[in-house]
């Protein structure tokens, strides 16, 4: 059976994994991935707006993975507009990248829950199978951490390289042209970053529990021990 120290560390890792799974699931459904402001370029040029006058042509935009909202400002007050990525915006956004972000979010939740289960299994049991023990814990933590990193890389490239905010701002616009004035990643994006860091922390907790890293050479290879002794 695992020692009290291992039980505490594995229970802590399991709780952190559960919190990450809930946070990721909540983040997927929100529109708090990106917040920014958009400038009505056409209107500002027509009146040659500068300084305080320019504020009348700066609207707001925020969106997530499925839906969002923008406030259109062209000198006559704000006009809110709700939009959805599916199916409205699929023709103007990099759909393959956007769908990949959503899929990796699903994979992140699944492997986070799998990791949580194995952490709790190791806390209260004596697993003999390799994937049920330390190697499996490292594996699930590595996969979940990698998914979190891929989500951030893909979504950042979609926003910054493919100018997602600007494409959304000009969606269904015929008379006016909008340009991104400012943008920043919002709460849901940073939740994914926090979850990736938590999975990295879980790997350190596994090591702190007394397990060697996978494929590392044992210090004393001549000592014959049973399977349970190798695990705990």
UniProtKB/TrEMBL annotation:
Domain of life: Eukaryota
InterPro entries (UniProt xref): Clarin (IPR026748)
Keyword DNA damage: no
GO biological process: actin filament organization; auditory receptor cell stereocilium organization; cell motility; equilibrioception; photoreceptor cell maintenance; positive regulation of lamellipodium assembly; sensory perception of light stimulus; sensory perception of sound
Entry-linked Pfam families: Clarin-2
Membrane topology listed for this record: Multi-pass membrane protein
Localization: Membrane
UniProt keywords, alphabetically: Membrane, Transmembrane, Transmembrane helix
Record-level GO cellular component terms: basal part of cell; lamellipodium; microtubule cytoskeleton; microvillus; plasma membrane; stereocilium; trans-Golgi network transport vesicle
N-terminal signal peptide: none
Annotated family: Belongs to the clarin family.
Annotated protein name in UniProt: Clarin 1
């Amino acid at each position: 059976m695992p020692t009290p120290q291992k039980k505490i560390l594995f229970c802590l890792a399991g709780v952190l994994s559960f919190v990450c799974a809930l946070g990721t699931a909540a983040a997927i459904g929100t529109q708090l991935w990106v917040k920014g402001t958009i400038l009505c370029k056409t209107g500002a040029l027509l009146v040659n707006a500068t300084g305080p006058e320019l504020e009348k042509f700066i609207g707001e935009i925020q969106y997530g993975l499925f839906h969002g909202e923008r406030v259109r400002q062209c000198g006559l007050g704000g006009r809110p507009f709700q939009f959805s990525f599916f199916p409205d915006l699929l023709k103007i956004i990099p759909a393959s990248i956007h769908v990949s972000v959503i899929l990796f979010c699903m994979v992140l939740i699944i492997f986070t829950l799998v990791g949580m289960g194995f952490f709790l299994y190791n806390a209260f049991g004596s697993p003999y199978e390799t994937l049920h023990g330390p190697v499996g814990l490292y594996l699930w933590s590595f996969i979940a951490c990698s998914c979190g990193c891929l989500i951030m890389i893909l979504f950042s490239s979609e926003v910054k390289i493919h100018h997602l905010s600007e494409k959304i701002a000009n969606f269904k616009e015929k008379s006016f042209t909008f340009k991104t004035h400012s943008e920043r990643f919002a709460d849901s994006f940073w939740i994914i970053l926090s979850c990736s860091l938590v999975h990295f922390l879980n790997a350190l907790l596994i090591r702190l529990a007394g397990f060697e890293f996978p494929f590392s050479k044992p210090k004393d290879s001549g000592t014959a021990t049973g399977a349970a002794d190798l695990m705990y």
